[in-house]
Amino acid sequence: MWQTVFFGSKLLAIAVCMAGCQRDAGQQLPYYNTPDFTPVFVESETDLAEKIPHTIDDFSFKDQNGQTVSQKDIEGKIHVADFFFTSCGIICPRMTKHMKRVEKAFPNDPNLVLLSYSVTPWIDSVARLKKYCLTNGIQAKNWHLLTGPKSEIYQLARQSYFAEEELGFSKDSTDFLHTEHFLLVDQHKRIRGIYNGTLELEMEQLIADIKTLQQESK
Question: What residues contact 155, with CB distance under 8 A and at least 6 apart?
Fold first, then answer.
């Protein structure tokens, strides 16, 4: 059943490997500017401005506490994004468990934000998200489970985070959206990594890459 709603896993397999395979400590992380996740490396700020125009668009949604979370909350901060739904029986709980590993690696870090967007926001109300947090032991103040208008979440997911985008192919806005990928975004809202959220090894790489981004900002 899961294969009927999961997209992008096969066509993005190479890109995921390139993003998630082991890197040397301190090695520069690539930038991802297009839906096919072709890695781009830059050598200077001028080079960066010319080669990496893509950033995460503005947004505004409600979290599990009924608080509004927007692009203002990620300005100047590293953030990790994923896409889930509370009624998902197998894959999403595993992704949530792995996101908790990321959160525990950076306890109470005010410069790291975790954003879990619901892909069934018509079902996942604020109250339902709060219950999901209680059931899964999610207590971190910087981890926001988000709900809002479907069209806005889907547009942000596909056009900003390139969720499910298969070699530039854009799905219709009515198509169900879901992906096992975690996206790492830097302090300037540029995508710096893509990881399979169901794999523990890739979570280790994500944690290492967050540390690399933290060093970049110093």
Answer: 173
